[in-house]
Design goal:
605 residues; alpha+beta; Neuraminidase; four-stranded antiparallel sheet; 15 helices; 32 strands; 25% helix
């Protein structure tokens, strides 16, 4: 068999189309005329049939138009048909915001699928505040799911501007898009009551709607994000709000506001913020450990930018704890610093606190909840199944000037709004760290006893470091099974104080603390009950803030370092990749900060 070669010319197809275009321009060899709006377009039947499913069927063997000299297309506008024909003859589709509707109509009607796809791409690429509503209506009308989803997302993200400048376009929005927008989990800069007013105005502009459609639309509003006063007025503001279904939503929202301390454990979609869920809050801290700030910083992990929370701390605190439950921020205990006057000059008074403050980002307000049973600083807290546990710490007893360490544990029962006693640790600790793995609480390190430099002995577990103060001990307690004792686990390699622990994918990591001779990171495997040393940080750090990301990365904010024989406060933001055991600097704080406590919280933008 003789061999042969198969060669391909990439320019031949373009040349062929250009020749067809020349024949069309010269009206040469045209065998059919398309008519739309009184305008005639001479064309070539073979090219039309090979480029469009519509014309393939129209010029089939059994149709009346098979041999017809002209075909009328009364459903199409001349401009739209002209541009689509130019595309069939050249491969180039001319689009602009003004011609897009007629081109899309012609391409869809004639079943020129490539042209329809290009129109969808044009919509997606051209989305902005001024076009998103009109493009959403076009995409919905012509069943373009990708463009519709993109347009709906743009409307959600630009809603604040649209409400101010393009409200008329919002009122002309198709119902499918409005429902999708009201389902969105993120609508920056817009209060829920504004969305309620928009939905009611839309119903007035597009009604009357069937009861089912009206209820479907309004049921996507998150009435738990509307204040009690506004909820009371909404019930009588519109007849659509008086249906049994929407009345039940209003009732549940009012009941939510009356829950008080139980709000964090009674969250639902109706009370969930429309916001990105993982802002990092940097609570407390300052350039000096002796004078913390009341301002709270927020860190957006998407763009790496910092901003200030409108509502700062009500007191200056250090050595406190923070956590989040049900999208509420809790600030617990610590040392409260107060300015005073002594001997004619300014002085600073310090008092260990047992106060607990709760911040609600929905309404940007602070509320004092029941105080802890004991005053605590240098303690640790963690959350297990929406229950806050406060563990150990230092305290100043009434009438005493010296601080003592505590072994006590207490937990906050939000359903009744009170603190209760938990199982005490085997010995007093302060400066320790904790984390949760599964439903169990792990506590590591710290300084045992009531004073720095406690003596060795069996009463302290025998896991002190070489200097005899910072402990290597690791304790475990499972509150879920009703355990009455803390179990000892394998000790860390290094005695740590003022350090951090974090859980990442079924492992526990112990990070840098104070007074450590090394900068090692350790990882704990609970199955093997064993610690492994990992890549150390090149420069030690302490009194930093730490936040664990859902991705598994750990962020360290600021802190103190030794530089030139002195402690200095730094601005660095470091990221630890646990999977690769690697550190890198990803940014800088707006100013040097130390003594920060961090947690993740959804925040309205």
């Amino acid at each position: 068999m003789e061999s042969y070669s198969l060669l391909y010319s990439s320019s031949f197809r373009g040349h062929l189309l250009s020749q067809f275009q020349r024949l069309r321009s010269d009206r040469s060899m045209c065998d059919v005329v398309l008519e739309a709006g009184g305008v005639a377009f001479p064309c070539h039947r073979a090219l039309l049939a090979s480029s469009s499913d519509y014309f393939w069927a129209l010029f089939g063997e059994t149709t009346a138009e098979r041999l017809s000299a002209s075909v009328s297309l009364p459903a199409l506008m001349p401009k739209g048909l002209e541009i689509v024909l130019d595309f069939l003859y050249s491969g180039w589709l001319s689009l602009s915001p003004s011609t897009l509707p007629v081109v899309l109509e012609a391409a869809r009607y004639l079943q020129v699928h490539t042209a329809v796809s290009l129109c969808e791409l044009f919509i997606t690429d051209g989305l902005c505040t001024g076009t998103c509503c009109g493009y959403a209506n076009l995409a919905e009308c012509h069943a373009l799911p990708d463009a519709l989803a993109a347009a709906n997302h743009t409307i959600s993200m630009e809603m604040s501007t649209l409400l101010r400048e393009n409200r008329k376009e919002l009122l002309e929005l198709n119902s499918q898009s409005l429902v999708a927008v009201l389902e969105a989990n993120e609508i920056p800069g817009v209060k829920e009551v504004e969305l309620v007013k928009l939905a009611l105005d839309w119903l007035d502009s597009n009604g009357p709607l069937p009861l089912l459609k009206s209820n479907l639309l309004l049921s996507h509003l998150r009435l738990g994000l509307v204040s009690s006063a506004d909820l009371s007025n909404l019930g009588n503001s519109h007849k659509a709000m008086a249906t049994p279904l929407i009345r039940s939503h209003l009732t549940r929202a009012l009941e939510y506001h009356r829950l008080g301390s139980a709000q964090p454990v009674r969250q639902s979609k109706q009370s969930s913020l429309r916001a990105f869920p993982n802002h990092v809050l940097l609570v407390g801290g300052g350039a000096s450990p002796d004078w913390p700030e009341q301002q709270i910083l927020t860190f957006d992990i998407r763009d790496g930018k910092f901003s200030s929370l409108k509502s700062g701390l009500l007191h200056r605190l250090r050595n406190h704890c923070v956590c989040s439950v049900g999208a509420f921020l809790f600030v617990i205990g610590g040392e409260e610093l107060m300015e005073g006057v002594r001997d004619g000059g300014k002085s600073v008074a310090t008092a260990t606190s047992n106060e607990v403050w709760r911040y609600d980002p929905r309404f940007e307000c602070w509320e004092k909840v029941e105080s802890m049973l004991e005053r605590r600083s240098w303690f640790t807290c963690c959350v297990v199944k929406e229950v806050i546990y406060a563990i150990g710490g230092q305290q100043t007893r009434p009438g005493a000037k010296t601080q003592t360490s505590a072994a006590s544990v207490e937990f906050y029962d939000m359903t009744i709004g009170s603190w209760r006693r938990g199982v005490a640790m085997p010995r007093p600790l302060h400066g320790h760290a904790s984390t949760v793995l599964g439903n169990g609480v792990y506590v590591s390190g710290g300084i045992p006893g009531n004073i720095r430099g406690g003596t060795r002995g069996s009463s302290q577990g025998g896991h002190l470091d070489d200097r005899g103060d910072s402990s290597r001990e690791v304790l475990f307690w499972d509150p879920g099974v009703g355990s009455k004792v803390w179990e000892e686990k394998a000790p860390m390699a290094i005695g740590r104080f003022g350090h951090r622990m974090v859980t990442i994918r079924d492992h526990i990591y112990a990070l840098l603390g104070m007074y450590e001779p090394f900068c090692d990171i350790e990882r704990y495997d609970r199955q093997a009950d064993h610690w492994t040393r990992l890549q150390p940080l090149t420069v030690g750090s302490f009194r930093y803030g730490m936040a664990a990301m859902p991705s598994g990365a750990v962020l360290l904010f600021g802190g103190r370092k030794w530089r030139g024989g002195q402690e200095v406060t730094v601005r660095s933001v470091l990221e630890y990749n646990a999977h690769r055991d690697r550190w890198k600097e990803i940014g800088q704080l707006p100013r040097p900060l130390t003594g920060i406590e961090c947690t993740l919280l959804p925040l309205p933008n």
